[in-house]
Design brief:
With about 350 residues, the chain is an all-alpha fold. The protein contains 16 helices and no strands. Helix 5 packs across helix 15 (about 305-330), helix 6 packs parallel to helix 8 and helix 6 packs parallel to helix 13 (about 260-280).
Length: about 350
């Protein structure tokens, strides 16, 4: 991708991207300290998530058990507790971190690409398309193919969205958003029709758990897919300069050496691919990609070079915390994590709106 010179967002451009007025350059540079702070918070939450549950385990014992698995020392835990840590909780923790980080990165990128503060990973109908694929294979009793079907549905939804926008006169940010709303509505209607017509018994419960978002059945194979999705999101972290340029408008971006049309298409496709992989594992989890980038902007400002990695750390922490609450707070029952993220995200986003931190 074309390299660009450092770009400082003007107040007007920052407002268009939903970020608000910019702090002085010197103050923003000092905010790099936020990254180790967020990383430390994530590590603390991850350790708590490994230890908390019906079988409570001391942090020192959990760390010793994990170290023993890589050949450092011996585990102080029995066989059952050791399996709980390594085979049940650790893959779930890694999956929550990967999905949360990926969705938050995509949310921040999407908000810049379409210059809409309400953008999130599901704006282009990707989540609804993934839901169609997931529901079809669950109805057919082919749950083993769920990740593949969800990813295929997400990709088809993206192609439908971009194709509709292009046919309507060009894939501008506004047309792309409107096309995404159309595709998402059509896919949601199809999901409802399939459920109403065919779902019963165990298939209905599986579909409901997927649509609400759940990490309850995560194992190491699912965690591997989620980590692969997060790895696909890593190149997006290097797009900060381009996103800052696009926030100034397509003409200004072109003057800075950024091909706005080509860059926007490439990043939209990348965002859809990442979202498709992640939701194929976790189901539809809302609000992480919408709320986390806005909340992180309050800490680090709107420069995407800092906002993107901070969003990744914040998204991983938020989803991991929400999943730990969903798993442990109502023991022996477990809530789908999508319910917890909605219960947390809706009031937080409302507060951001009421305080003027989100501008539309």
């Amino acid at each position: 991708m074309t390299r660009t010179a450092p770009v400082e967002l003007s107040p007007a451009a920052a407002e268009r991207s939903g970020s608000g007025p910019q702090p002085p350059v010197r103050a923003r540079r000092r905010r790099w300290w936020a990254l180790p702070l967020l990383a430390a918070l994530l590590l603390a939450v991850a350790l708590a998530a490994v230890c908390v549950g019906a079988a409570g385990i001391a942090p020192a014992d959990a760390l010793a058990a994990l170290a023993a698995r890589v050949g450092i020392g011996t585990t102080p835990l029995g066989t059952v507790d050791d399996a709980i840590i390594v085979d049940l909780r650790l893959p779930r923790v890694l999956t929550a971190c990967a999905v949360g980080a990926g969705l938050a990165i995509v949310g921040a990128v999407m908000q810049a690409l379409v210059r809409n503060p309400l953008a999130d990973p599901y704006l282009l109908g990707v989540s609804s398309g993934a839901s169609v694929g997931a529901v079809l294979v669950l109805i057919a009793g082919l749950g083993v193919l769920l990740p593949v079907a969800a990813f295929a549905g997400a990709l088809l939804a993206l192609l439908a969205t971009l194709g509709l926008a292009a046919a309507a006169g060009g894939a501008t940010p506004t047309r792309t958003v409107l096309a995404g709303v159309v595709v998402a509505s059509a896919a949601a209607a199809l999901v409802s029709l399939v459920i109403f017509w065919s779902a019963a018994g165990d298939a209905f419960r599986e579909i409901l758990a997927w649509l609400l978002g759940s990490l309850a059945s995560i194992d190491w194979s699912s965690a591997t897919i989620a980590l692969a999705g997060a790895a696909l999101a890593l190149p997006l972290l290097a797009t900060g300069r381009m996103l800052d340029a696009l926030a100034l408008g397509d003409s200004a971006a072109g003057a800075l050496g950024v091909d706005a049309r080509r860059t926007r298409w490439a990043l939209l496709i990348g965002c859809a691919l990442v979202t498709g992989v992640l939701v194929s594992v976790s189901g539809a989890i809302g609000f992480v990609g919408l709320v986390v980038p806005h909340a992180v902007r309050l800490l680090v400002g709107a420069s995407h070079a800092l906002l993107l990695p901070a969003s990744a750390l914040g998204g991983a922490t938020v989803l991991l915390l929400a999943d730990t609450v969903a798993r442990a707070a109502f023991d022996p029952r477990e809530l789908p994590v999508g319910i917890v993220t909605a219960l947390l995200g809706a009031p937080i986003f409302a507060a951001l709106m009421l305080t003027g931190r989100v501008r539309t």
